[in-house]
Specification:
elongated, 159 residues, single chain, mainly alpha, 6 helices
């Protein structure tokens, strides 16, 4: 063992001291590394910023998931409406269309009466509701078709 230590000391390059320029370079590299480490630790310690980043990420995930689920629901509602329409006999569809026309006519009449007699805040809310209904027309029509089919089947059972 003692021989190994003596051999290590005797090897060239072990006894050379670094130049002042080499020391400055090492010190600067060490400072830079310490600065980066301090910045990383400060970022980890900034709980508020990390919470905001996480909140933003979760909001984006929820928005994406909501859009995806909404699209799936619209597709399923459209598919269900087409399936109901395909399975419904023509006379039933004709009666449903006629009933729909009557309902629309009555709804227009009632809406005119309500608009004439309702105060302004109520009219504003009703307008908002109509805009939402127009924006979601396909799912509402699908639900209406399903309800009409169920009503027709129920009336047939009670005969």
């Amino acid at each position: 063992m003692t021989e190994n230590r003596a051999e290590n000391k005797a090897q060239p390059g072990n006894d050379t001291t670094p130049s002042s320029e080499e020391l400055r370079r090492r010190v600067e590299a060490t400072r830079q590394g310490l600065g980066e480490t301090v910045e990383a630790l400060a970022a980890k310690a900034d709980v508020k910023a990390r919470a905001q980043e996480k909140t933003t990420a979760v909001k984006h995930q929820v928005a994406e998931k909501t859009a995806h689920v909404g699209a799936q629901l619209r597709d399923k509602a459209t598919h269900a409406a087409h399936a109901v329409q395909d399975r419904t006999p023509e006379p039933v569809r004709a009666k449903a269309a006629a009933a729909g026309g009557q309902v629309r006519g009555k709804a227009v009449h009632v809406a005119e009466l309500a608009r004439d007699k309702a105060p302004e805040p109520v009219r504003e809310k009703a307008g908002q509701g109509m805009r939402v209904a127009r924006a979601n027309r396909a799912p509402l029509l699908a639900v209406g078709a399903i309800i009409a089919l169920l009503m027709v089947r129920r009336s047939r059972r009670h005969r």
